[in-house]
Structure formats: structure tokens, C-alpha cells
Amino acid sequence: MSETHAHTTAFVRDAVLPQQPPPATASGPLRWMRDNLFPNWINGIMTLIAIYVIYRIVSGLLPWFISPTWDQPSLSACRALFTELGQSTHQACWGVINDRWRQLMFGFYPAELYWRPTVALFVLLAGLAPVLFGGFPRWFMAFALASPFIIFTLIWGGTIWVPIVVALGLVIAVVAFRGLVKRNAILATFAGIVLPILFWLFLVGPLTAVLSDALPIGLDPVRSNQLGGFLLSVVIGVAAIVLSLPLGILLALGRASDLFIVNKISIAFIEIVRGVPLIVWLFTASLLLNYFLPPGTSFDLTLRVIIMVTLFSAAYIAEVVRGGLAAVPKGQYEGADSLGLSYWQSMQLIVLPQALKISIPGIVNTFIGLFKDTTLVLFIGLLDPLGLTNAIRASTDWNGIYWELFIFIGVLFFVVCYSMGRYSMYLERKLQRENR
Amino acid sequence: MSSMTDSPPRESFRLSQLIYDTRYRSLTIQVFTLVLVCIGIYWLGQNLLTNLASLGLQPNFAFLNSRAGYDITPSIGTWITGYTSAATHWDAALVGVYNTLLVAFLGIILATVLGVIAGVLRLSRNWLVSRMMAVYVEGFRNVPLLLWILLIYSIFSEALPQPRDFREVEGAVSAASMTWGAFAATNRGFYMPAPVWGPGSGVLVAVFVASVVAAVLYRRYARKVLFDTGRMLPMLWPMVVIALLPVIAAYFVLGQPVSLSYPELAGFNFSGGLRVDNALLALWLALSLYTGAFITEIVRAGILSVSKGQTEAASALGMRPNRTMNLVILPQAMRVIIPPLTSQYLNLTKNSSLAIAVGYADVRATLGGISLNQTGRALECMLMLGLLYLALSLAISFVMNLFNASMKLKER
Question: Residue B136 has what pLDDT?
């Protein structure tokens, strides 16, 4: 820059201009709309079509949804209200939810005992918390282990000694295994399996009889056929989820195993169960299971359904876990072998943690499917929420009501299933070890 | 290896080796498992025989040849087999099988179409469209299928007009009117024109099949020319012309052998035309929408699994976006898509047994429903039903595996 040059120019800016905001079309909502809604003409047309579709759906449904009928005691009262207000009768009658939501939740569970399933739900959530999210004190895990027995007692009632004595069997198993494992691993496994079974077969009955005579503590018993509604779905769903995961993992290990017979039996079980619809299995449970049991045995339909649903989803979980097992690099198996770990040690410490991590989305999807499939029990006469809609429609007050109930039930299921899906995403992120 | 096995210290076999020696332990475990399973099966079978004996029942399939004696709503199955209530239980089962196959087939097609479209739209840059597809997917995946079936069926049976609403009343507007004078959606079913096959229509069908085959052959020829010489022949419009022109020509040459019979209002109901049962429609729509939501996610995951470098390489070669999609991305995505797609097809087929909710006469409703209740042969009916679904599943798996093999990466 020469001095002379400065003289020849008419104007030189010597201060920095204040920063200007970007033009309206290059920032803010306009920019966002141009990028995301109208980037080119074909997308613009798609946006317009989408807006039109949404408008049609919303304008069709909104007048139906917004209807001042929360307090109406019956469908005819709703209709009367609409005529009184001079409105179309094509509107929702939400009074049915107000009137019957307890039934949709609890079925025919005695009304004065509604607190018990409610407390059981909180026990379930508290018991699940340490399993689902880390960072709880160790004693809390003990509570999680005890929670199935607490929930059982709360829901079915009866003497508290049955669940306690049954739980004692598990304690015996653990003690026997721990006591013997140092001396002889095989003997310990054997004792850990056989002792509790013998205990349950021969000692539970007399022991509970003695104890409940001596100390008759208990809750009012509730029969299984009084369970219904969303409570029934949750009971079947949670029980089957908890039971099917270990069974599914065992089946997957069996299918991946080198042992010829174990392998073939696992394959046969998995393929037969998966090849046939759940409805057929449920009908088998309700129509045929008694044929296969010793004459004179009859056991609870709810329990039979839980067993069937468990076996069914175990087969699906086995396939998901098999995918996970196959995805673990071969070097990991060989590494475990070269460390001299036994089969179970290598599975437990090396292979399964990695395989299960890979299969989390699939496992959770199976659980979501299982929970949704609990609605099928309506076909064998159990009163799940959808079965109860028929019962509600059968009353004169609510004869002819459909969509309000379906929407309510749909929202309940959506909330539970959607949360499960979100949880699996959270777990995937938490367990992610690779840097991407 | 040989140096190690040259001189093994010969030991006599001890019983404890069955447990402690890994060479024999696997054998022990397997024999143990086998014995346990055999005992279990024996126990179940023994119970079954005792129970059946005490009921005076013998497993017996003779009931299949006895008269069924119940009516089935007219459907594709009754049309194919000519079923009447005088037919046997075996015929009723066949009707059910045809109906199951029909709804599964239609469902698979519609679900695939929906799923592919929604899966591509889900990946669109358009925020609104991709959100809408997300709502569709989450809405259908997180709510039981049974609820959707019941909901759609109740919409059909409660919200659609009755056939008599289509009647034209003097001086008043009728409550409902037919679309294009040919289609009517009523609470008793969906009415549409039915083809009437006149003389010579067989020739027409033959011409149609031949021209479709010719169109496919042309496509193969065009591809071969493209791959051999790089010369690109026009693909779409010649195929359309080859497929349609001979048929149209034959139609007029043969003197219009196929005509349509329109549904017409007679009294309080429609007559003529083709009536599609609402149960079938509701089941079909619900199954397709539900499975379509799962297929959407599968398609999305498949397309996302193709690395971005492939798209970039295709653009670098000067390919237009739709050719990139057809020739580069989709063939690679298909390999990821097909295995889960197969399992969705299987799920759809098995879920078609939910026909029970709407009273559609599928095989579970005929063989596993009315026949079972009438004859009391629960064991035989359930066994046949289970085997049938197993066979269906295996058949679908087999076809899809063939398809998968043809799509596999062909390495030189």
C-alpha cells in the first residue's frame, strides 16, 4: 500500500461494519422450509399432497374426537345430548371410557381389591428398575429377585406361605450348588437341579399346610378367571417375557451346539413352534393339553396360556440369539478355548455378553410382538381388553359402541410397546463400545 | 498332528471318563438328553392313549369323508371347489385352505407394495413426508394386529351405508351413490363389476399370457443388448405395447368375448356383479397395513445399509438418480432385505389365522373351527392344521430362499 494510492481513492472504510443477520431466505424457518419441505418441485408437490392428506384426516377426525360426552352414562344419553345440542350424532361418546375404564384395566377383579394389582405394578416397576438400568445398590437386586413372588401374592392372594416356600426351593438350589461347586462341579449342578425339584414335589405341600395352620397370614384369594383386561395382558406378557428369555437362550445354544442330538432336537422344536400360528397353539392349549397330562389333572387356563406363549416366544428369541451368536467373531470362541475356559464359562463370560448385545433390538421386538399377541387369548375365552369390549357392548347401556374402546385400548398398548422400543434404543446406545 | 498321536499312552477305559474326558463327555450328554426326551415323549403319548381310551376315542381320520352339513359364505374357496353343505369335511378344509392362500397372497402383494413405497418415502429428504411415514410405522407396529382387524372391520360394518341407502327415492337425494356407477362399498360387502366369460374368452386369455411372456422376453433381450454392447434400448413403452396391443386387438377381433356385469340394486340389496366380503377386505387391509409397517423398516434398513460411496461412485460415473437406485443401490440392498422380508411373509401367512376375528372362512375356521366342533375330533383337526401351516411356511421359505440365492453376490 503506497501513500499515493490512498490519495487517489475516493473512500476507504476504516471501521468494520456491524454484522448483519443473514437474509431471511437463508436462515430461520424459511430456510428450513426450503431445505426440508420444498427443495425441488417434486418434493414441493409431495409436501402439498401430504398437507392435504393430513388436513383431510384431521378435519375428518377432529369433530368426532372433540365431544362433550365424558359424563354421559350410556350411548342413548350421548345421542340425546347431541340432538339437544343440535349436533351430528357422528361423534365420540367418551362416557364409556369414564364408565368402564376400571373394567378394561382389571377385568372382573373384585373392585375393593383394585389396590393389589396397582401395588403389584409398582413392585414390578421397582423390581425391573435395577435390571433395566444400572447403578442401583446391590441389596436392591435381591428385591428384584423377590418381586415375582410378591407380585404373585398380591395378584392371586391366598396364603403367603406358598410363594415363600417355593422361593425356599430356589434358595436350596443356590446353597447346594455353592456348597458343592468347589468339590465337584458336576455333582453341584446335579444337586442344584434335582434337590429343589424333589423339594417342590414332595415338601412344598406339607410344609405350606403346616405353616399356614400355625400362622394363617394371607390375602383374600382371587381366582384366575377373575383376572382380565389390561392386567391379564400384563400378567401373561411379563411372565412369558421373563420365562422365555432364558429358555430362548438355551435353545439358541442348543441350535448352535456341535452335539448332534441336542442340535437336532433344538432345530425341530424351534421350527415346529415357529411354523404354526400362535392361535393354533392357544387352541391346542385350551382343547388338547388335558389329553397329554395324566388323567384327572386340570390346571388353570391362564397358566396354560402362559406356558404356550412362553414356548412360542422362546422359539423366536432362539432365532434372534442364534443370529447374535453367529455374529460373534470366531476368534472370540477360540480365544475363550485357548484360555482353558469350560463351555459354560466361555459362553457366560465371553460369547453371550457379545451375542446378546447384538441381538437386543431383535429380542425387544420379539417381546413387543409377544405383548401384542397376548390379545389373542380372547379366542379361548380369557377376557383380555379386546375380549372385554364384547362384554361391554353386551350391556344395554353401551350396545353399539366400538371405536372409543378400540382407541383407548390401542393407546394403552401403544404406550407400553413404544416405551419398550425406546428402551431398546437406549440400551443399544448404552452398550455401544465401538466408535463410529 | 501325527507326532502327537504317534504313541499315546494306552489306557484302559474307565467309567469316570464318560464325565471327565471331553472325548466321551459329549456322548454322555447326548445320550442323557435323548433318554430324557424319549421319556418325555413316551410319558405324553402314554397319557394321550390312556385319556383317549377312557373317552372311547381312537385317533381316526375317517370323519373327513363324512358330510360336513354346514354352509360357508361364498368365497374363492367355495367357487373353486363348488362347495355345498352336502360336501365332506375334507372339502370344507380345502375351501379353508384356498381362502387362507388367497388372503395370504393378496396380503403379501399389498404389504410389499406399501412397505416399499413407505420405506423409500421414509428416507425422503422431505421432512413432512418422512414424518408421516414414521407415524404410520410406529402406529401400526405398536398396536396389536387384532385391534387393527377389529377396528377396520367395525368401520366397514358400522360406518358404511347399507345397500338400501343406494336406492333412489323420488324427490330426495339418495343417502349414498355408487362410484362411477360400478362400485359400491356397503356394510354387506364391496360390490364391483364381474367379468362374464363368453365363448372365445379362452383364446383371449391365451393371447394375454403369450403377450406377457413376449414382453418379459423383450426385456431380457434389451438387457442382454445393454450388457453386451452398451446400447440402451427403450424399455418401458415397448413392453407396455407388446403386452397390451395384441390383447386389445384380439378382444375386438374375437367380437368382445368378455363383458362386465355391473352390480345393480334390486329391492333392498345388490344383484349381479362381484361381491367381496367385508371380512376378507378388512382382514386383507389390516394384514397388509400391519405387515407393511414392518416391511417399511426393513426396506429402510436395507437401503441405509448400502454405503454412501456406492451412490457417489454411481454419480461419478454419470448415472441419473433413478438408474443409481435401480442398478446400484437396490441390488445391494435386496441382499439385506430378503431374509427379514421372508420372515415377514411367514408372519403374514400365519397371522391370516386371525380371520377368526371377522368370521372369514379360512382353514382355521373350517377345519379347525366348525368341523372340529361338529365332530369333536380336536386332536386330528389340530394336527392337520399344524402340519398345513408348517407346510405353508416351508413352501414360502423355499421360494424366498430360491429368490435369495438368485440375488446373492455372484463372485467370480
Answer: 94
